[in-house]
Specification:
This protein is mainly alpha-helical and 106 residues long. The longest helix is centred in the middle third of the chain and has 22 residues. It has a two-stranded antiparallel sheet. Helices cover 39% and strands 9% of the residues.
Amino acid sequence: MEAKLARQIMTIAGERIIHELNGRPCIGLETVAPRRKGCAVIRSPGRRLEAKVEMEQAVGGYATRLGEKIRCRGLATDFIHTSQFNDDDGPQRNVSMTVDIPEASK
């Protein structure tokens, strides 16, 4: 495939891939992975939670998993938000906080 056609169909990324496949380097090789800027545990309980205790249990489980991930990566930001696909006219929530998580004990 011609590089110009690849660019028309697949944008600049497609053109660069064609050049790479034809032996012309244009995508830099990272020898060291860049430090992650974020981390997420994206889960949905599968149904709408009405009871506060159910929400606390669900958030507690997700926070535990997120804590494991951010501890090992040295990150410290957490946020929770309600479903953007909520059908009713109820208020949307978007809560965020920064916390320091100590190293886990074994």
